[in-house]
Amino acid sequence: MKQTIKDIVMPIETAGLTFKNPFIVASGPASRDISQIIQAEKSGWGGVSIKLTIDPEPYISRNPRYRWLDDSDIHIFTLEKRLNLEQGLRLVESGREQTKDLILFANITYAGDKGLDGWAKLAKKFEDAGAHAIEINFCCPNMSFNLDAIGEEKEGRPSTGASLGSNVEVVKMITRAIKESVSIPVFAKLTPEAGNIGEVAKGAVDAGADGVCGTANRLGVPPIDIYNPENIVYRLQEYTSLGCISGPWLKPLALRDVLQMRTTIGSEHTIIGTGGVRHFSDAVEMGMVGADLIGVCTAVMLLGFDILPRIMRDLKRYLQETDRDSFADIRDIALPYFKTAAELTMITGYARVIDENCVACGFCTRIAHCNAIEIIDEKAVVRRDKCLGCSTCVDICPRDAIEMVLKPCTPAPSRRNPCRE
Ligand SMILES: Cc1cc2nc3c(=O)[nH]c(=O)nc-3n(C[C@H](O)[C@H](O)[C@H](O)COP(=O)(O)O)c2cc1C
């Protein structure tokens, strides 16, 4: 079915910018040349964050080697090509010339010896080239952060990406310097490696950032061939290294980053939620914990720019079903349901076997933490005195033969008014 403008339009105004919809191609290999930027606009994306520009010339920039590990929903890489200043500026210029209403973010890192002045001047060059916004790269874990992680000598090499984003004071200084040098919106793309991304986000907005972004990939060990550890996971590459993990695996962590940032910075500033988004429902979850805009990288790499019309179609249907007009209407609505562990209300109940479904397979009897279920006369039987109410047995039963029920109490419990522990 041919896509029409109406299908992909859902305007979002945030940080002084107008996006035709909340979806942005996140900085990465799908935003490194002009043909990709043109394709992103054709497919209907609201914005593109161009591939990281490092100035001076990237100190680690090599042909890519990626792996998509379908069975674990993991994308992993270490080697990657970055843009140099000239390439980055030309890309923004030609992107502005050849697109109409696509919002372009310049994802940048200054790696020279001019300190804050170097950062400020770099950002200004991108503003002059036509970038709609600056996205300061405080996130990439596969540059200096990767080397720091394996204890490599720091002397003489610049700190970049997640190494900078791990220090709130550095984030504040760089953000402030850039904010003073440009008049376009400034976003800080943050790493969770600092410990509390909410506090760093607060530092960034206090220093003037118009918005913050999560989440970049996490540094991890690629799968190891336990019989032949010399057979590394990457093709056409010798030896391995810590790798940047992204894709669906990342989503729960990415949601947490957005939630922590939103609850710490308050409602005023923009958040771009990124990490593991592939379907409209992933984006809705991001919105519900605080995201205004959604970044997508791995799903575009693997499935192409044309995933956007499908996501928009599904999102529009969902909004219609739930009687909402826009993506902005779902922002923050899950937040009131998040409490600390101490504040959670426990409902008193226990597991009950649905006899007609039970085939006495015995899976539930193996659960080690309660030992509350035994097989008697070819049926599972729950010992209520031992049942913790945890519900693991419901999840592992292959026959849907166990359910959780409310414990009788006075007055009689109901779904709306159960007995509470
Ligand atoms: C191969 C690759 C290269 C990336 N390069 C950049 C980059 O240059 N700058 C940046 O800020 N993030 C970069 N990222 C991170 C993504 O923009 C995104 O934040 C992360 O992958 C999580 O989103 P996803 O699960 O949709 O991929 C890269 C990710 C991948 C997979």
Biggest sheet strand line-up: 3-4-7-8-9-10-13-14
Kindly give the count of domains.
Answer: 2
What is the assigned CATH homologous superfamily of the largest domain?
A: Aldolase class I
Using the 3D structure, state the CATH architecture of the largest domain: Alpha-Beta Barrel
The profile of the biggest β sheet is: 8 strands, parallel, barrel
Task: Provide mean pLDDT, rounded.
Answer: 94
CATH topology of the largest domain: TIM Barrel
Q: What percent of residues adopt helix (DSSP H or I)?
A: 25-40%
Radius of gyration: 25 Å
Description:
By secondary structure, the chain is of the alpha/beta class. It has two domains: 5-337, Alpha-Beta Barrel (TIM Barrel), CATH 3.20.20; 342-406, Alpha-Beta Plaits, CATH 3.30.70. It contains 13 helices and 18 strands. Strands 3-4-7-8-9-10-13-14 form an eight-stranded parallel beta barrel, surrounded by seven helices. A four-stranded antiparallel sheet has the order 5-6-12-11, with no helix packed on it. Strand 16 and strand 17 form a beta hairpin. The longest helix is centred in the N-terminal third of the chain and has 15 residues, at 115-129. The protein starts with a helix and ends in a 15-residue tail after the last strand. 44% of the residues are buried. Flavin mononucleotide (FMN) is lined by residues 26-29, 51-52, 75, 77, 80, 107, 137, 139-140, 189, 215-217, 246-247, 250, 274-277, 295-299.
